[in-house]
Amino acid sequence: EIVMTQSPVTLSESPGERANLSCRASQSVSTNLAWYQEKPGQAPRLLIYGATTRATGIPARFSGSGSGTEFTLTISSLQSEDFAFYYCQQYYNWPPITFGQGTRLEIK
Amino acid sequence: QVELQQWGAGLLKPSETLSLTCAVYGGSFSGYYWSWIRQPPGKGLEWIGEINQSGTTKYNPSLKSRVTISLDKSKNQISLKLSTVTAADTGVYHCARTRVGFYNYYMDVWGRGTTVTVSS
After folding, report:
1. Is the pLDDT of residue B103 over 90?
2. Is the minimum CB–CB distance between B91 and chain A shorter than 8 Å?
3. How far is it, in rounded angstroms, from Cα B63 to Cα B65?
4. Neighbours of B40 (CB within 10 A)
């Protein structure tokens, strides 16, 4: 099973600032990585797949980078609606599909 | 606009069987895989398993002996059964439309989730 580790667990940033969220895989997953946003009481939302491709309707301030074992989700200028939980997910080798434990992005 | 609506029993006793249904509205049912994912309280997401249009399933090895995912094409519904539940099965359960391709496997539409609590 491929283990995904996200850091930090909690990230405190101010609106308008740039946020970098990290995801590390226990072995190479190539670019077979997705990112999701989750807010309490709402359905998770797909942000990025293929490590770098924005999903339909996702604002350009969200970008993904990385390959192999190291990945980053960058939010270039934080909006109030961006404060949420973020999860990475690998699909290089399954079953099982595996997710990171999540990063909570909170307002500083 | 595709919408996934979920329902099922929210409170179970240990050893009972969890049973959830997910209905697909407003979009195509065929041509996609469908997954179930859960989230224990205070923890991350855990993939439970998937089913394709042929009814072929794949399950998380950690749950495989207890899980059954099925689909009803006539009703555009997907079902999840998890037998012999314990408190460790408490959490929010989501169904999700899943795009599967040669280089892709991601969930692009999610249900809001059903909270399941296992308690005696």
Report:
1. no
2. no
3. 6
4. 14
What sign results for the dihedral spanned by CA atoms B63, B67, B73, B75?
negative
B105/A contact by beta carbon, under 8 A: yes
CB atoms within 10 A of CB A21: 23
The minimal CB distance from B45 to the residues A43, A46, A87 is found for: A87
**In terms of DSSP H, where are the helices of chain A?**
none
Structure token digits, residue B24 = 């697909």
From A1, A43, A102, residue closest to B110, measured CB to CB: A43
CA distance B41 to chain A (A): 12
Torsion of CA B9, B12, B15, B21, to 10 degrees: 20
Pair type for strands A4-7 and A19-25: antiparallel
> What sign has the CA pseudo-torsion B69, B71, B75, B77?
positive
Burial of residue A72 (CB within 10 Å: 0-12, 13-18, 19+) is middle
pLDDT tens digits along B16-71: 999 999 999 998 888 899 999 999 998 999 999 999 999 999 999 999 999 999 99
Give contacts of A57 with chain B, Cβ < 8 Å. Answer: none
Amino acid at B104: N
Q: How far is A50 from chain B (nearest CA, A)?
A: 7
